[in-house]
Amino acid sequence: MNAILGIESSCDDTSAAVIIDGVLRSNVIAGQKVHEAYGGVVPELASRAHQQNILPVVSEAIRQAGITKEQLTAIAYTRGPGLMGSLLVGTSFAKGMALGLGIPLIDVNHLQAHALAHFVKEEETDEVPEFPYMCLLVSGGNSQIILVRGADDMEIIGRTIDDAAGEAFDKCAKVMGLPYPGGPHIDRLAAEGNPDAFHFSKPHIEGLDYSFSGLKTSFLYTLRDNLRHDPDFIERRKADLAASLQRTIIEILLDKLKKAVALHKPRHLAIGGGVSANSGVRDAIAAFCRDRGIRAWIPKRSFTTDNAAMVAIAGAMRMRPGERGDLSLPPYARTEL
Ligand code: KG4
Questions:
Q1: How wide is the angle at C-alpha 149 spanned by C-alphas 319 and 207, nearest 5°?
Q2: How far are the Cα atoms of 80, 183, 272 from residue 281, in angstroms, in the given order?
Q3: pLDDT confidence of residue 37
């Protein structure tokens, strides 16, 4: 039996998952409500919550998988990028456990794990993408177009030069007075609104890179100008604001994706990261791929946000026979692929 435990603690979700002989047996995620009051993730509070959560989350993942910890054959953990304090918790825990059990330790790049999330099989017969494929990774910290040639061979061909798509959702939601994280609230409100009610500015930058900071400013100015003569403007128009914001973010994402697809002609296109849970993004990507005869890989919502199932599969795909892993590797807050 090949049983890999995945551990994820890069931001504000503590997660552990077990993959046995290629099939996911458990994926436990503990979110952190503590940040809601602050309108964003507070790094120090995140690492403290990881410390409280990690032991119960890992034990529960092993229990749900129906095995004992002694039956684990390897541990994969997120080494980075992410918040240093948060990463230290998962990294130290994974190292201690691998050392105690005498099993190999596999370090995983969080961004690679998002791009490989489509290889997580819940049933043996589940299909998986074919290399090479293109991946649009859109989360709270990243907006990237990635060429995925292999489990350990990826190239970022477009990236954000300022805010990530998730930040655009969250920051605009915050100025509307919506709770953190705002992305899911915008998604819900957008379903009731008119996507053409407002027009916000879109970036004009060359190449495949993204920019979302201009949109945020344009959104803020629209609110400010309208609130001057209508104090109830946000409340009255929140659905239209959300729908128009969501449409603009999707248009920005697709503009660059169109260029990337024309250049690289992928046969498969995957999306990943928290923003790939957005209903509008999912529908737009499905339609985009359908029109071009590209196979779309749209993850189940539980695999869009941070989770350890993707870390376990990335570890399984990267593991080399006989490799023991390196207990001295430190976590890294920032990195490329
Ligand atoms: O990948 P992720 O869990 O972690 C970070 O990189 O932080 O992504 C979180 C981001 C947040 O910005 C959140 O608002 C966004 O994903 N998000 C959504 C939706 N669900 C989560 N954005 C838009 N629509 C959603 N349904």
A1: 135
A2: 26, 12, 11
A3: 86
- Helix axis angle, 279-292 relative to 183-190, nearest 10°? 70
Could you read off the pLDDT of 7-55 as tens digits, one per residue? 999 999 999 999 999 999 999 999 998 998 888 899 999 999 999 999 9
Q: Which ligand 1 atom sits nearest the alpha carbon of residue 279?
A: 26
Which two structure tokens, joined as six digits, stand for 154?
Answer: 């990826």
- pLDDT at residue 40 in the model: 86
Q: Which domains does the chain have, with CATH numbers?
A: 3-126+303-318 (3.30.420.40), 133-266 (3.30.420.40)
Query: Going by CA atoms, what residue is nearest to atom 24 of ligand 1?
Result: 278
Tell me the per-residue pLDDT of 156-206, one tens digit each, with 9 for 90 and over. Answer: 999 999 999 999 999 999 999 999 999 999 999 999 999 999 999 999 999
Q: Which amino acid is at 225?
A: D
Check if 32 has its Cβ closer than 6 Å to any atom of ligand 1: no
In this structure, which residue's CA is closest to atom 22 in ligand 1? 183
Q: Is the peptide bond before 266 cis (omega within 30 degrees of 0)?
A: no
Q: CB atoms < 10 A from the CB of 116, how many?
A: 29
Ligand 1 neighbourhood includes 331 CB (under 6 angstroms)? no
Q: What is the pLDDT at residue 164? A: 95
CA 81 to chain centre: 12
